[in-house]
Amino acid sequence: MNQKRGLWFWLSALAIVIAAVGCAFWLDPFAQSWIIGHQNRTIKIFMRNVSRFGDWPEHVVLGLLLAGGAWLRGNKKWRRIFLSMLLACAIAGAAARVIKITVGRARPSVTATETWSGPNLSSRFHAFPSGHTAASTAFFAVLLLANWRIGIAFLPIPILIGFSRMYVAAHYLSDLICAAILGILSAILVWRYFLRKIENQKSEI
Predict the structure, then answer these.
(1) 113 is in which domain, residue-wise?
(2) 118: left (phi over 0), alpha (psi -120 to 50) or beta
(3) What CATH number is attached to the domain comprising 157?
(4) Which of 61, 67, 120, 121 could pair covalently with 82 via S-S, beta carbons 3.0-4.6 A apart?
């Protein structure tokens, strides 16, 4: 019975993911049109700053500071959580980098005859997926899995970072949705095979 429930859960999750990705690609032109029609100088400056300081180096620095603070306080549980957040961030960021170089999707700000150019080293064709969004989502999704009460309070951060990337014409809506899915999968991977495994070993001892 539990196996059937587990199977139905993952099939349902897969169906939701496929539907979300499909809707995101379909909504791309509408979302982009809305962004263009709602440009504001003050908001654009704010979003540029969010985008600038919402990349993976800032997440790494934050994670190291938090892990260092937990280490100084002798809190092994939170030190593991913060290190797991860093690991998930690194996995999602690296995966996003490989994918975007491989597929070569032109950014919204780029005028190109082909939206998908294939393998391309130019950052102008690194729209899909959003590295900022993937790394930030993975980082905070681990926190959500470890402690949902604390994690849910920080969810607006990756959402804001993702929106800022679309607002500054660096990504399409589908780039953000797929990046968020990549980040969540990276977080689940780390939580299941690293963080939870260590906690189970500790409880057995």
Answers:
(1) 2-204
(2) left
(3) 1.20.144
(4) 67
Report the number of distinct structural domains present in the chain.
1
- The count of residues in the chain is 205
Burial 143-180 (b: 16+ CB within 10 A, else e): bbbbeeeebeeeeebbebbbbbbbbbbbbbbbbbbbbb
Tokens of 56: 């993976």
CA 136 to chain CA centroid, Å, is: 5
Query: To which H or E segment does residue 80 belong?
Result: helix 76-103
Q: What is the pTM of this model?
A: 0.90
